[in-house]
Fold LysM domain-containing protein.
Amino acid sequence: MVAQDQAAQSQLEYWQLYEILFYLNRMLANIAIINTPPNAITITAVNTTLFALAKEYYGDPTQWVIIARANNLVDPMVTQLTTLYIPPWNQQDTGGIL
């Protein structure tokens, strides 16, 4: 009987942690939306690269870093279903390179 009670308690704790994680992710997504410039585009992407997205939205795949910075990413591969923010691109901004 004790083992069943412990298993039930463990399962309850799992679902509580899952629910907390769910709401935390929602809150983080909402905060990201608040901090997004008003003229940024929001997209949902999967199985693509930031290079391809930069080519599509900016016409220049080398500008993938702009999208990466806006979304706190370091890997240009987008393998999971992800909401991304595509900020406007200032073509005069060279990223510090002349």
Q: What stands out?
A: The chain has a mean pLDDT of 83. Residues 1-35 form one domain. The chain is about 50% helix and 15% strand.
